[in-house]
Fold these 4 entries.
Entry 1:
Amino acid sequence: MNDPFSTRIRRYIPWADYRALEASQATDSLVGRSYIDTDGIKDRIAILANSESSVGFVYFGERQWLEARLYSNSDISYSSWAASELKTTVFRDGFARTTDSVMGMCWKAHTDDLTLFWSPPQLSCAIRLQDVEVLVLGKEDTLPLLEASRVFDILHDLPYYLRSASSNYSNYGDVVLDALILSPQQSRWEMCLANEYGSFGAAIFDGQELVGFT
């Protein structure tokens, strides 16, 4: 099975430590660089692979992206690679342009293959994954690649976000993740939740931090 989120490699790391590792790896990330030579790619892959083997920390999909560049001898961007992974591996039919009855014009996709998502026992919570639907709001004719990479990164760390929101919904019964909603060019996104009676609220994140509820 294709493993876009490196589920076989990752180990649980407390959120504060995880964020520190993330900040450290971001310093020398090749994502967004206008020019990357082959030696630089190989050196960066070695650094990322060492982090994975030593502490079980995976910096999003950067290593897999760089390996894809080497394998295909192409200059594919991280955003394009992430969009391709979402289309071919994560979402059954990719993103479809649609008009949602509530959110208006958007790009929508969903998956029910929960084996794709890393879910360590230390992050078990009251909110369950069932059928993850993702909506990227906006009127663009094509899905913005930047938003595709944001979706990939959010799904990569989804168990942490579920865990941070779960304590606020202990009185709502059997709660499932209903949808993730992203607005273009904004760091804020929503995790919409539902129970047997339907959708009832959302946890709001600014980047990687939980900032409120509706």
Entry 2:
Amino acid sequence: MASALDYCHSKHVLHRDIKPENLLIDINGRIKIGDFGWAVHTPANRRQTLCGTLDYLPPEMIEGKDHDHNVDIWALGVLLYEFLTGRPPFESPNQQETYKKIVNIDLKYPSYISEGARDLIRKLLVKEPKKRLHLSQIPEHPWIVKHTVVVVIVAPEQLPVVPEQQPTDKN
């Protein structure tokens, strides 16, 4: 996800609605980002529109401030928390309470969330947008490294040719 968003941001595209429903997995297990309905191409990299899904909104949007690509980094923190716990971190009975929890970064970690996962979430869910972990640093985070399995897919034509062994007569 971090690499895909980094690519979008390099093209000045902000997604602004990262959430589980907008992620797709292809037949090879690769993640694809879908639903660019709230996305915007913004070479100036600054926007003011309040948009997206309530539980994933960053503090700067709620407070009516300009926002940039860092909104997608915030959403990755919310997404990670939700994937690990089954619910969004700031979920509340009503919209105003959710807004308040987001702005105050008021979240509780269940005891089963490891310190490594908490550290990554804390580095993504930072109120000051420019202080959030950069997308290029996410794959290098110790918790990600520890839990990543690297799979190399090689096309059959790229496999080395192994000479056939001649049968040996052991009689």
Entry 3:
Amino acid sequence: MILKKLAHDNELSELDKAICVNHTGSSNCVVSDAVRLLIGNYSQPSSFRQGEPTLGGHKIFSQHHHTSDVLLCPSHRKIDYLVAEATKFNRGSHKSTILAYVLTSLLLNAEPLMLQAFPKSKGFPFPEYFGSCGRLVAEEYVGTTLTFYYNADFKVRAAIAKQLLDMANLFYENESEMILYFTDPTADNFAIRELDNSQNVQSTAIEVVLVDLEGLIVVDKQELFSSEY
């Protein structure tokens, strides 16, 4: 397991100031109170969970200059989906707590939100998500980065190449009806999980995992296609 800090101290400070300015016009306020009030401004009915509130992505995107990449191409269904998946993972948490968590993730770093919405358990090539505490996230340690496999055996490199192609296909075709675009495809953002070789599995028994999800853009496929006609 590894712990990730969601942002540098100066970025966290800037987020707090931006939230205060957005709500009070001043850079000084009680941030938790401001977030609760912002949730009220952005809330709207959910289409996934009847009678439950969700967040309006268009409102957040239009009122905040600095947001995570996932808010690009905002749509009600996309944000509603992210809130619904976060609600499933955080069963028992108060509704307002979940909305506050989703809102601050969208404004700061959406990686923990992506790990919940597109989990390893549903076949997505991401680390397993264990939980968050404040502005720290706990997730699975996968292994060494793709950089260390540049000179690996040809079969290993071929297996990696195929999995990267499969990953790109999965990002476009998956049951969520969301398209995932990765904007920072450097080798250090991928890691290799070595699978159990106890059953005489060959050296190609590896799995490529995207371990840095901060640069993901999520596009609602339904809205994309409907806007083309």
Entry 4:
Amino acid sequence: MTVKEGREEKSSIFAFSGNLTLVSYAPKKGKVVTLLSSMHHDTQVEGEERKPHIILHYNANKGGVDVMDQLATTYTCRRKCSRWPMTLFYNMLDVAGIAALTVWFFSHPEVAANKQKLRRQFLTSLGEQLVDDHIQQRLLNRRSIQKDARLALKLLGYIDPPADMEAVEQPSAKRRCVGYCVPGHVTGKSVRCARCAIVMSARITALLDFCAKTVCKSITV
């Protein structure tokens, strides 16, 4: 079905399996177009180009695919990710949002004049409704909510004034290491102890490196 060599121009090869039809069409030498359809179940071709009905049907309706891709690009939930299942999931969410908006427009034809602005409001409202149940569950145990998440909930109005929020613990002025600082390679002006998180200057770190190699095996800060 995908072999290009030796194919006659404007020729078609069909394959059938259950309710599926696969067609391989050669519009010119060195090029093959392959399409799969669950709607067509014959080998009919039309016109001087002898194009199969599957290709004619696709050409007549492919504009919808381009419009959907454009809409998904305008407002998308996609993020840069190297995992293809997550990329597929993001695309499913985008398509679902477009489908939901289309159904909503058909149910409310009187508001379809300003679609671009309404789409943004619709997606915003849809996202808030989808996460509302999860937010309400998180609010039951506010101690487990991180500082950034608490701030976001406050800005969205889920948490009342700062008095309702737990005071953020301020670090003490002096911190002492509870164990042994293990010095590492100096990469800048300062480095952070891997165990106690104390920021050490490059000079102190270099001294610790020297002591660890020559004087003792562990240094207490």
